[in-house]
Amino acid sequence: MDSKYIEQLLERYWQCETSLEDEAELRAFFSGSDVPKHLLRYKDLFVYQQLQQEVHLGEDFDARVLAEVEVPVVKAKRLTLAARFMPCLLYTSASPRDS
């Protein structure tokens, strides 16, 4: 592939003006072994993108993450209506000291 064409694609790539097909051409070019010396500094970028597309999460990923998540401990106490009024009953009832 012509290095001038690749340089033009790179210029458009840095300007965010490339299509998906153009980017696929760049990845294909930099995956090859005949990359000119002055373009070698870009090779890692495009090879890395291709390698990362092949990396996938395992089938057991969800199960492993959920196993690590702790079940939240609820510290709320269940109050009944009688328990809510208990302090009122304590303060309003007659005590032995009141007589």
In summary, what is this structure?
With about 100 residues, this protein is mostly helical. Helix content is about 55%, strand content about 0%.
Shape from CA axes?
rod-shaped
Share in β-strands = under 5%
Number of strands: 0
Number of helices: 5
The sequence of SSEs as H and E is HHHHH
**N- and C-termini, Cα separation:** 107 Å
What would you say this structure looks like, in words?
The longest helix is centred in the N-terminal third of the chain and has 12 residues. The protein is 57% helix and 0% strand. It contains 5 helices and no strands. It is mainly α and 99 residues long.
Which structural traits does this protein have?
single chain, 99 residues, mainly alpha, 5 helices, 0% strand
